[in-house]
Automatic annotation (TrEMBL):
InterPro entries: FAD-dep_OxRdtase, FAD/NAD-bd_sf
Comp. bias regions, Polar residues: 1-12
Keyword annotations: Oxidoreductase
Gene3D superfamilies per record: D-Amino Acid Oxidase, subunit A, domain 2, FAD/NAD(P)-binding domain
Signal peptide: none
Annotated organism of origin: Kaistia geumhonensis
Disordered as annotated region, ranges: 1-27
Annotated FAD dependent oxidoreductase domain residues: 31-383
Name of the molecule in the record: Glycine/D-amino acid oxidase-like deaminating enzyme
Amino acid sequence: MATETFQRSLWSSLAPPAPRTPPLSGSGKADVAIVGAGFLGLSTALHLAESGASVVLLEAEEPGFGASGRNTGFVVPSLRTSLGPTDIRDRLGEHGERLTALVGQSGDIVFDLIRRHGIACSAEQTGWMQPAHSATMMRVLEARQGDWAARGRSVLILDAAETKRRAGFGSYHGALLDPTGGQINPLAYARGLATAALAAGAVIHAASRVIAIDRQGEGWRVRTASGEIRAGRVLLTTNALVGCLNPAMASSVIPVLVHQIATEPLSEDLRRDILPGRSPLADTRRHTFALRWSPDGRLVTGGMVLPGPASLARASRAFLKRLRHFLPGLGTMRADFVWNGVIAATLDQMPRFVELAPGLDGAIGCNGRGVALTTALGREIAGLYAGRIAADAFPLPHGRPEAVPGHFLARHGPALWLPWSNWRDHLESARGN
Ligand SMILES: Cc1cc2nc3c(=O)[nH]c(=O)nc-3n(C[C@H](O)[C@H](O)[C@H](O)COP(=O)(O)OP(=O)(O)OC[C@H]3O[C@@H](n4cnc5c(N)ncnc54)[C@H](O)[C@@H]3O)c2cc1C
């Protein structure tokens, strides 16, 4: 189903047309072949082409077809709530501080890139707001602010009254506001990155599903049904849609289906009252309540729904109901758009840069934080391949992929996790601690 809803998204209706990227036909050569034109593949291709390397990017469908063209468009310069700078350092040791520095810069990296290439994607660097649904989570956010301050980075803590003023609803304990975050139209951004990469000299082939990657002398042969590319290096950025192309990558993440809705356009009064500063909001609940305005005056929200028949209709009903629960003054309204996409989740919610074989790498698992992080990681991978960044200065370890234990069963984990986390969120919010 995830593949069917691409055209149904709000972003498809608002994005400028995709640049021309004809399918691969015949054979070609490149220094680097990249498989998958999401933000990660596109950012790597753009930065590599800018450094003078020859790069060919092969995409099964079209640029932005995966999670990149379907997400909420939040530019979030942090990892998940449980992963602050100190947690990252504790988990990744020497790489941790470098990853933290990159994550901290990632909002600016996205908006600078958009400005530099004149990408028309309704970009708004209005800050990213994370309200706390409990006193415990408020303390976590305060500690987070201290963690960032110790690294010379300023994020704001808002009290309950200021949070209510900026959200326009709810009774949160306060919030963290990261001024370098914001929002974009993600499909327009993906298409803009593709246009910029083409202008820098990269070659992109859409409708070119890679079906095999074989060793060929010192390098690799990457095959589609209608052609092949010989390349010294290959990077897989296929994320959750990796399928059977590389089972080791596929079993290192859990695919999580996430739905999105966009309401009908709402009145000017509501636009003034709800999120008046247009900062997108994602709270600290386990099943996050996320909300933003679209460029055309719709509220966009979403999350997970239990799997079942006619999921799109159920998702639409479930998220309209959730929206009215948080904003009771909204009254009745319809969802004009419902779509979904798949997140590649890692158990520890950290991204991976893996060596599948010498000269064959994969980057995967930006979880629900991939807008800013993939863009920033793509720049770093390009720097590594171009020799600008030394291997020991890279922000992630470069190990073998590790399978999620009991992967087949773990795939069903998110569905089991949802009722439990909704219940815990509800208890914590009700008790307020
Ligand atoms: C509904 C939803 C909401 C989200 N909201 C946010 C958000 O607001 N903020 C945030 O930071 N993150 C968000 N995320 C996460 C974010 O979208 C992802 O982390 C990010 O887009 C991943 O980018 P990527 O380039 O790694 O992968 P993808 O964008 O998934 O790209 C992978 C590409 O590989 C292609 N591919 C697969 N197999 C092959 C093959 N064999 N040959 C050629 N091509 C192939 C696919 O067609 C696809 O285009 C959200 C995700 C979803 C699903």
